[in-house]
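Page header: ASSEMBLY MODEL / two components / 404 residues total.
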Amino acid sequence: MTYDIVVIGAGIAGLTAAIYGRRANKKVLVLESRTYGGQIVSTKSIENYPAAMGISGFEFATKIYEQAVALGAEIKFENVMEVIDGAEKQVKTNQTTHLAKTVIIATGSKNRTMGLANEEKWLGRGISYCATCDGAFFKNKVVAVVGGGNTALGDAIYLADIAQKVYLIHRRNQFNAEAALIEQVQAKPNVTIVNNAQVVGLLGDHQLTGLDIIANGTAQQLIVDGLFVAVGRVPENEKFANVVDLDHNGYIVANETCETGTAGIFVAGDCRTKEVRQLVTAAGDAAVAATHAIKYINQL
Amino acid sequence: MEAVNANNFEAVVLKHDGIVVVDFNADWCGPCQMLKPVLEQMATENPSVKFVGVNVDQNAALAREYGVMSIPCVVVIKNGQEITRHVGLASKTDLQNILQGIQA
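Prediction written out in full:
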């Protein structure tokens, strides 16, 4: 059996593409390696999506998932390993191979790590990538935030109201964030900004107890109970490099038509080269990619 | 999935003869809400394994005792001893592989 559209990723882009595909009566399969919803499920309250103000990320994702399922999209929890181009495209997963007339890649992005040895070992033992998820565990404790963008500053401001003390560790001497956030973080008396600094080691036995850092060329130690990492996000597209072009950051190259260099393979959402990565642009991409995929199928 | 608390944790989890999967979660945690149906499905598919949930807001001391600093956090306990844990979202396949590794 050949699907009209196989969508890789069940985040907002992937599920929206499935809705559009089903509305055109195409046979649609969505493949997801973990759980549906993607990045947005960690967001407590969505404030910038039209007509859905204040909805939780979980509820928002669940509604889109239910809509896609109600319209007849098949959703399978399999990990895609490879896509092979051809008259029929083969989508190889950890379980089987699916055949498709078109493929829409909507794999989103993941948290960038600091690149330290054994970093993942500390996840849940003092290291977190989500301040709003895990901040509550650090009430009256000492924490550090690493990063210099909007997310890092937002995290530091959020944590300053929970923790006793917050170090904000940034590798440059100027933040790359909105002016309002910089003002807010500077106004917090319990936030100490550590510029020109990098975390080079994680200390502790079973749980994180401190950090080795190099600040302004000098090695020092910070005693902390927690470290929140906010150094950006990275795409996960390497496995598709045989069928699509990736830019130097690993994003799939495509313009606003969401067409890749390979006929019948489309891309939608955060994993595409683009300026603005928001829920609404992910959904917008999905509508465009699915519409082009439908047009492509109808011309076969 | 049975909700356990500090009062009955010892009796329900630690004294249980066999494997218990303990899901540390909170109502405000989106990824925890995502994981819950996965664990519920696993509970029906693995009748020999006990699945329980601990709300970290209502049981902060218990969460601290288990060193839970990030949720969702799934701790697998066998005959009262922690065998392994998984932090963050996971697919059913990932969690099933962890269980099979222990049961083997």
